[in-house]
Amino acid sequence: SHMPDGTPGQSFKFTVLETLDRIKEEFQFLQAQYHSLKLECEKLASEKTEMQRHYIMYYEMSYGLNIEMHKQAEIVKRLSAICAQIIPFLSQEQQQLQHLSHHTAGIPLTPHPSGLALGGGSGLLALTGALGVSAHLTGKDERNHLDAEHLRGVFGGGGGGGALRSPLSMTPASYPAHFGVVSHAGLNGELASPGSFGGSLTLSPQISTAASAYTRSPMVAYESRSHLRPSGLSSSLPGSSGGKPAYSFHVSADGQMQPVPFPPDALLGPGIPRHARQIHTLSHGEVVCAVTISTSTRHVYTGGKGCVKVWDISQPGSKSPMAQLDCLNRDNYIRSCKLLPDGRTLIVGGEASTLSIWDLATPTPRIKAELTSSAPACYALAISPDNKVCFSCCSDGNIVVWDLHNQTLVRQFQGHTDGASCIDISNDGTKLWTGGLDNTVRCWDLREGRQLQQHDFTSQIFSLGYCPTGEWLAVGMESSNVEVLHVSKPDKYQLHLHESCVLSLKFAYCGKWFVSTGKDNLLNAWRTPYGASIFQSKESSSVLSCDVSPDDKYIVTGSGDKKATVYEVVY
């Protein structure tokens, strides 16, 4: 009699378990489906940003070509007028020849019928085709994410010899003779083009900087061509900087990027350099990771492996160091050296747990104190405006605060989760800005000793500088961007002229301009804050460090080529 009761109970239990299993399977199936959709979504998102990147690039190119066509049309008009005036003076025979040659001209020099509307791909191809130019493009492929095949499809399609060769891999001699080499290729983003076209294709600076490698001897500072710009052209084209495609973008709080239209005083006016002239080469003998110049602008200090060398740059002529300060261990690199303004004390930090403080006032410089912390290395140093405190960026992410008078550790700022790489102090001495290998820039309150702000980026931070006149913080990225942040508002500027990581950055003391240096051998001078390019200098190797003299008259750079270079800033 118990059986009938038991069976339904059993089957009921069974169905519950079955149902649970089914629900579980269903759930797992949904989870898998959700996961695959999520992956799909991420893929689409990355494709979208890719497309946007390409779009900006093509926009820049067509924009540059448009400007070029305008210029060419003007030139053609003038030449036609001149021809019309000259032809009547020629003999009958020559006039007939002239007439014939006009009919057989193969290259249409007037603007192409398709009008090269912005983004007009057919115009781009037709132009390439008409000129028979093989578009010599180069660029860090992984940066632009454009493989050669893809570009060949876009540019080579109509262009006969659309082979993509990096100008760096070609010797200048292998160029056909009719290639007119434009001397400011790197600066104005122009590439050499056939003489028959008489002008130059304007491509984005990211793509063409490499072209500058053979247009001038590597160590010449490029002069800004502001004085050569046709005023009518630049004023009539918004965001135009004399034909160079947009490299400076304003990024609003919601992430919208807009090319910056530079104001008329961007490259003119008091306190804005015209260019920089190289005046000294200091052969240090090891890679120069740190440089500083004295307030008197007489002495330069170069930090290399195991020592700092002191140079007198007040006299012209070849240089040998006037002193050598042996610090750290012989094989460890100096990463930062800072002078107190009176020029009597030098603080040196690097690949060691100890900072050394040098007394330079004695007949032979000597170490007067050593400050030891728990971190194995110091990446950067800063000194407070009152010269009482020194800040050390440590490889463990801490910022150590030292009392210079008593040589004691006062406090540590903890927050960076990876090495702290760079540091600067606000002009009023109340805030500290630090950048880290943890992709963050942080702001600290010096009086209360706490973190006030944090900016997160997608790239490691290698260098930063606070504008001496306030408001702006310039940051050099591993990703090759320079970003200029407003210290209280969310908007910022993003500058794209470096081809590789930005290794050092320093503001001029007047605050109107700053310089950045990179692994791409470039020294760039920018206008604060929107980043109009003031001048550019190509060195022979990575530029690891830089400093600007307190009177803004000299720039010193330290190079992977085991030397330092002193530039005179020309106004």
Low-confidence stretches: 104-241
Q: Which class best fits the helix and strand makeup?
A: alpha+beta
Number of helices: 8
DSSP strand (E) fraction? 25-35%
Give the number of DSSP strands.
35
Largest sheet, if any? 6 strands, antiparallel
Q: What is the first-to-last residue Cα distance?
A: 111 Å
Tell me the strand order in the biggest sheet: 7-6-28-27-26-25
Percent helix among the residues?
10-25%
Question: Quick one: overall form?
Answer: flat
Radius of gyration: 30 Å
Q: Residue-averaged pLDDT, rounded?
A: 78
Short structural description:
This protein has 571 residues and is an alpha+beta fold. The chain is 24% helix and 32% strand.
List keywords for this structure.
571 residues, alpha+beta
Can you give a write-up of this model?
Helices cover 24% and strands 32% of the residues. By secondary structure, it is of the alpha+beta class. The strands form nine sheets. It has a six-stranded antiparallel sheet, with no helix packed on it. The protein has a five-stranded antiparallel sheet with strand order 5-32-31-30-29, with no helix packed on it. The protein has a four-stranded antiparallel sheet with strand order 8-35-34-33, with no helix packed on it. Strand 22 (431-436) and strand 23 form a beta hairpin. The longest helix has 85 residues, at 2-86. The chain is flat, with a radius of gyration of 30 Å. The relative contact order is 0.09.
List the helices and strands and how they pair.
Elements: H1 2-86, H2 92-104, H3 121-131, H4 141-144, H5 148-156, E1 179-180, H6 185-188, E2 190-191, E3 193-194, E4 201-202, H7 205-208, E5 221-222, H8 231-236, E6 248-251, E7 257-259, E8 275-282, E9 290-293, E10 299-303, E11 307-312, E12 323-326, E13 334-339, E14 345-350, E15 354-359, E16 366-372, E17 378-383, E18 389-394, E19 399-403, E20 408-413, E21 420-425, E22 431-436, E23 440-445, E24 450-456, E25 461-466, E26 472-477, E27 482-486, E28 492-495, E29 502-507, E30 513-518, E31 522-527, E32 533-538, E33 543-548, E34 554-559, E35 564-570
Antiparallel strand pairs: 1-3, 2-4, 5-32, 6-7, 6-28, 8-35, 9-10, 10-11, 11-12, 13-14, 14-15, 15-16, 17-18, 18-19, 19-20, 21-22, 22-23, 23-24, 25-26, 26-27, 27-28, 29-30, 30-31, 31-32, 33-34, 34-35
Coiled coil: 20-47
Protein name: TLE family member 2, transcriptional corepressor b
Subcellular location: Nucleus
